[in-house]
Design a protein that fits this description.
By secondary structure, this protein is an all-alpha fold. The protein has a single domain, classed as Orthogonal Bundle (MetI-like fold), CATH 1.10.3720. Helix content is 72%, strand content 0%. It contains 11 helices and no strands. The chain has helices at 34-57, 69-82, 85-116, 118-132, 140-146, 151-175, 179-187, 192-203, 205-226, 235-244, 248-281. The radius of gyration is 27 Å and the shape is globular. The N and C termini lie far apart (64 Å).
Length: 282
């Protein structure tokens, strides 16, 4: 005799139950180790280097149009032996750091005011939005007239480029802070600057660092325009001087160095972001 197995019959009109989820195995997806991630990240640059070598060695481009990677390396060695390369790098890094810090601080302050005050938002935001559309090169003649050819004009132009991403992300993020969190903090006596630094900014740390990383990228972009302001050293100067002298090998070297140091500074800021998020989360 067959065993009687009770069968559940759903009530008419009742929704069918979803199939049971598979039991958890208690294991997490494997995360790649540091060397493995680095290796994967280097695959595309290695492929681009191979394509570069292929295009320059098969006659697709002439030597003047696209020197092979070895020629660019030899140009780097030549500049190192002359003592010029490290000076160009150091001056450009200094300009980027100073301009980035100035623009980021100003963007953080003004973005906080606009994000927290409806009145300041109505008064200031439309004008800043209009200035944000001005191309970087459009500021060059004005800065020449106002500040001159010194370092101040170069740092100011880089600061202008770094300001807008920080301002935009901070202002937008602070508008969307959980109001219940703010009210709870106020009930404990937090107001003004203390409320901003203790509750509101920590609540938008990821957005703030996203703006900072965009600002750092903008700072490197504005560097080349800044070094058009009568510069005699720097990677931007090396770029334009090499173009004027037909030294495509040095021109490509300047482009590679801008990319490399832009990535290095972004990686350093990314590490700072992780440590800041862990500190505020603890």
């Amino acid at each position: 005799m067959a065993a009687n197995i009770p069968v559940h019959t759903p009530h008419p009109g009742a929704p069918e139950s979803a199939p049971a989820a598979p039991a958890s195995t208690g294991t997490r997806p494997r995360t790649l180790s540091g060397p493995a991630r680095l290796g994967l990240g280097l695959l595309l640059p290695a492929a681009l280097l191979a394509v570069w070598q292929l295009l320059s060695s098969t006659g697709v481009f002439t030597f003047v149009q696209l020197p092979p990677p070895l020629a660019v390396l030899e140009a780097a060695v030549e500049l190192v032996e002359r003592g010029d390369l490290w000076i160009n790098i150091a001056i450009s890094v200094q300009r980027v750091v100073l301009g980035f810090l100035a623009g980021a601080v100003l963007g953080l302050l003004l973005g906080s005011l606009v994000g927290l005050s409806r009145l300041v938002d109505l008064l200031v935001a439309p004008t800043i939005g209009a200035f944000r559309a001005v191309p970087s090169l459009a500021w060059v003649p004005l800065l020449l007239l106002w500040i001159g050819l010194g370092e101040d004009s170069k740092v100011t132009l880089i600061a202008i480029g770094a300001f807008f991403p920080v301002y935009t992300t901070v202002a937008s993020a602070l508008r969307h802070v959980d109001p219940h969190l703010v009210e709870a903090a106020r009930s404990f006596g937090y107001t003004g600057l203390r409320l901003l630094l203790t509750v509101q900014l920590p609540a938008v740390v990821p957005s703030v660092f996203s703006g900072l990383r965009l600002a750092l990228a903008q700072a490197w972009l504005f560097l080349v325009a800044a070094e058009l302001l009568g510069a005699s050293m720097g990677l931007g100067f090396l770029l334009t001087d090499s173009q004027n002298n037909g030294r495509t090998d040095r021109l490509l070297l300047a482009i590679v160095l801008l990319a490399v140091f832009g990535k290095i500074t972004d990686a350093l800021l990314g590490r700072l972001e992780k440590s800041a998020i862990l500190r505020w989360a603890s």
